[in-house]
Amino acid sequence: MSARLALKGNIVLPDRILENGVVRCENGRISEITEASTRLEGSVIDLTGHFIAPGFVDIHVHGGADADYMDGTPDAVRAVNRAHAAHGTTSIFPTTTTGSFRQLDDMIRSCEEVQTAWSSKDGARIAGIHFYGPYFAANKVGVHSSAGRRDPVRQEYEYFIGKEIVKIATCAAELPGAVDFFDFARRQGCLITCGHSNAHWAELDAAFAAGMRHVDHFWCAMSSVSSLRGRLGTPMQGSMEQYVLYEERMSTEVIADGIHLSDDLLRFAFKMIGSHRTCLVTDANRAMDVPPGRYRFGPQSDGTWVVSDGESVRSDDGGLASSMHGMDRMVRIMARAVGNDLPSVIRMASLTPARLTGMDCDIGSIELAKRADFAILTPDLIVKHIYIGGQPLDLSRNSAGF
């Protein structure tokens, strides 16, 4: 296998598009980025008319291809990673749901095994784990199993967050023990997030002081002025939404599948929060890339039953149950919503999440010495080819065409 790779096309750089550029790679790293000349030395793969984008980085993702990370097996982890690689994601953060200690432990151990033995045939490379469930507010659990929800348990979270593979840690800020959770996660170097929460301003202030810097899926399963009025009465209180808008050191994420949020809300997030502190995430579950039907959200053994109609996934009460689409769809919908600013949209799917997790020196953009992870996109932003570490991936889908 050749250790060299050269691609010619419209290169999506962090701040602009280099039309008809050439990116050269050696031993899995980017070695040169140049404008194309009339005479190209060596073998160059001609992708004229296509976008050469950095591989996407997904920091909030549960499953795909009829598998969920919480199934707790290496086979399930690989199935999810291969499915998301086909949608342009090259670095992935498997994300826990609510569940028992044993289920969380099996999930993390399986991810550790796959990460250690990774090869390109395994799909997206595991960049870290997002320890997401189980510390949610009781009234903001969403589709997650309420039986697996609990307040922070110090011995438990110190065991899990103390593992090197865990890079992101979430807790509802209003729970007893949340500040201690955030403080421990900060000392472990995690990106600290508040999610599935009905926290008010003072609780968010306390969390921020302890190291919290991010809130999960903006407008979804998060506090609002109206929800806080139901909790606290009057005077009305500032919520997670206002806190992120006010505090410029905070970041967030949006599920831009065209189902969770309208284009108006996506434009609002893009304009008011910005591509430098808003990530695109899939929040995808096992219903991605499989036919419509009834599926478990979370562990196959006892996760919540949800129904996919082929476009969205909903719980029995009709509520949205995360997403069933890959990052390429998030990029297309966001690009449609905000108009002609593809570098910023691609940044939201790559460099911004890489930077927030402290990995931007290695992944997230097409720059010298970074990993040769690329998503090759058609002019309509359809994934055509994927390279991870300079190696092409087989993007063949299952026979059903999902």
Could you describe the 3D structure shown?
With 402 residues, the protein is an alpha/beta fold. It folds into 2 domains: 4-53 and 370-392, Urease, subunit C, domain 1, CATH 2.30.40.10; 55-355, Metal-dependent hydrolases (TIM Barrel), CATH 3.20.20.140. Helices cover 26% and strands 24% of the residues. It is built from 11 helices and 21 strands. It has helices at residues 74-85, 101-116, 154-161, 178-187, 201-209, 225-232, 240-246, 263-272, 327-338, 342-349, 351-356; strands at 4-12, 17-26, 29-35, 45-54, 56-61, 63-64, 67-68, 89-94, 125-126, 129-131, 166-170, 191-194, 214-215, 252-254, 278-280, 293-297, 304-308, 313-314, 374-377, 383-388, 391-392. The strands form 6 sheets. The protein has a 7-stranded mixed β-sheet with strand order 3-2-1-4-19-20-21. Strand 10 (129-131), helix 3 and strand 11 (166-170) form a beta-alpha-beta unit. It is globular, with a radius of gyration of 20 Å.
> What's the CATH H-level homologous superfamily of the largest domain?
Metal-dependent hydrolases
Q: Can you tell me the residue ranges where pLDDT is under 50 for at least 5 consecutive residues?
A: 398-402
Strand order, sheet with most strands: 3-2-1-4-19-20-21
Give the count of structural domains.
2
Whole-angstrom Rg:
20 Å
Q: CATH fold name of the largest domain, please?
A: TIM Barrel
Q: What's the number of helices?
A: 11
Mean pLDDT: 95
Q: Note the overall shape.
A: globular
Please give the largest β-sheet: 7 strands, mixed
CATH architecture term of the largest domain = Alpha-Beta Barrel
The class by helix and strand makeup works out as: alpha/beta
Question: Helix coverage percent of residues?
Answer: 25-40%
Strand proportion, as a percent range, falls in 15-25%
Strand element count: 21
The termini sit apart by 31 Å
